Amino acid sequence: MAPRVLLRAAALCSLSRDALLPPPRDASTAPARATQQDWADGARGLACLFVYLYHIGSAATATAGYWVRKATDGAGIAPSFLQIFPVRLVWAGPAAVFFFFTLSGYALSLRTMSLIHSGAAPERAYSSVASAAIRRYPRLFVPVAVSIAFIYVLTLLHAFPYAAEYGFKHVPPLTSFTHFLVMVPRVFAFHDVSYEYNDSLWTMPHEISGSFKVFLLQLVLVPIRLPFHVPMLVMFIAYGLLLEQNIYYINFAAGVLVAVLYVRRTQSEPARMQDFESADLELEKEEVALSRIFLRSITGLKIMRAIWSTLVAWHYNLCIIFGLYLASFPVDAPSAINVRLYHWLSASGWGGHLVHHHWKHGKYKEDILTVVWNSLGSMLILYGLALTRTKCLHIFLSIRPFKFLGDISFALYIYHYPIFISLGGILAHAFQGALNISAQAAIFIASFFVLLVLFVWSWFVTRTVDSWAIKLAKQIDMFVRSS
Description:
By secondary structure, the chain is an all-alpha fold. The protein contains 18 helices and two strands.
């Protein structure tokens, strides 16, 4: 009896493992990105899910206490359960947006940095940058334009009856049609892209502008000697964090820096392994002739080297943990730490322009310091994930559910807000009346069903609109490069 139970349990474990883990690939035929960067898709999908949770929490007044209970003085206020790390990561939607920007800079730079550091001809690097720049615009423009048309169709169907409860004014279909005619050309210019019932589109101008700044950074780095790449990018990021009013683009530069560090390590590891192997051979030859005392000293050096290697390897994981802590700072509720820091900046005179723009009459115009913390947190998270030697993190982010989220993440991001406001509002009111529950509980229950609909709709949009946009971008690239 016991062997049969063990065999059945082993079979179930095998089936669950095959269902979650990605299928094995042939290392001789699979491209490098497919085998090494699947974790990035999973991380992108998780970040998109955090944005959705943040908007749910913003809509449900039950969680409003997390943002309403602001620290107004140096003493601060005792935190609630939702304010304790790591629970507050559930509402880290703003930091997830910064992670999107950083990950975009990383993904857009990986191929070009690989060409530069492999010693390829500069013409190949320039060609890679030009191809990516040509394909980037239609890849972003087509899905955003279609999403605006989708919102117009929902407006015609009167699908936003409870939009006022989420802070949106009711828009008649005729007004929505005129806005649709105006917004499509503005989408083409990616200038102040916003539309009724979809606040998430505010990131699109930053995404397209940041992408082209990444391409400019790559063009600057191509003719420069390799040892100067990291110092230049670090100086650029430090300048943007300290003096730039708009720090969104610094995350794109940080993504370029992580790509440079990743490529440098991956391309130097084979040579280092050969050096280690040859050094071990020489060491073995010497150990035969040396005394036992010297052998003990060599063993001690090996132990010290092992300890140092362990510390170096684990500092990436520590960066991930500290980055998650910084990313969990709420933009909507400045912490007591920020209040003290603002007062210190104002009293010391250092950074007075920062305080002047964001601190007036003892009130926050914008908690720019928390934006900085979120930005730094997203940088540290990507740095740790890209360079960590703890492969279980990459395996965890590469399982099929996260990979699926990463594949549909773009469509999920640009459609989650209007679908949540329309379908979520209707379902929340239906659940509240049928189950006799509070409005907050009804919103959370409705959000689960909305998420299921979003998965299906985002998968459909990814297979149709996104796929067509990618093919169109490739065709435009081939046409421009052949002419």
